[in-house]
Design goal:
By secondary structure, the chain is of the alpha+beta class. It has one domain: Nucleoside Triphosphate Pyrophosphohydrolase (Alpha-Beta Complex), CATH 3.90.79. Helix content is 19%, strand content 31%. The protein has three helices and eight strands, in the order E-E-E-E-H-E-E-E-E-H-H. 32% of the residues are buried.
């Protein structure tokens, strides 16, 4: 198997950092492995779907937000890649990929928005809470942390 960058396939993915507009970001605590780590709302981009359409869909599926609950206020200039550990590559449907190519968005949540974590057939998160960008980085999964940090810098959430 050729492992050159040109021949490796990355799963297209939309990721959303949610902010309250006052310096806090939404910490989404994973309910699956690795339990207790924090990540952004994120998910694969379906065939024929734009990255922004996927981001909006994932916001509904993972945290129960409707388009009227948030405003997308930023998009990272370039997609960001990370590789999965070997065991993740064996999961059904993921075996043809070596990792993800993420298109990051920043969305401001309206104060009255309610988060619903079980609106989809798979509950990604055990809980969500507002926290600092530094806390998100501290609690994020090692392989995802560099891209989350890069996106937060680009969005001006950290310096």
């Amino acid at each position: 198997m050729d492992s050159s960058v040109e021949n490796r396939k990355f799963r297209p993915n939309a990721a959303v950092i949610l902010t309250d507009g006052a310096g806090k970001v939404l910490l989404c605590f994973r309910s699956q492995r690795p339990v207790g780590t924090v990540q952004t709302v994120q998910g694969g981009i379906d065939e024929g779907e734009t990255a922004q359409e996927a981001a909006v869909r994932e916001l509904h599926e993972e945290v129960g937000l409707f388009p009227e609950d948030f405003e997308i206020i930023g998009r990272a200039k370039e997609p960001m890649r990370y590789e999965w550990p070997p065991d993740l590559r064996l999961k059904p449907g993921l075996e043809k990929y070596v990792g993800q190519e993420q298109f990051f968005f920043l969305a401001k949540v309206r104060p009255e928005a309610q988060f619903v974590l079980d609106s989809h057939h798979i509950q990604e998160f055990s809980r969500v809470e507002w926290g600092t960008p530094a806390k998100m980085l501290e609690l994020s999964w090692d392989m995802k942390r560099p891209n989350i940090e890069r996106a937060m810098r680009e969005f001006g959430l950290i310096t």
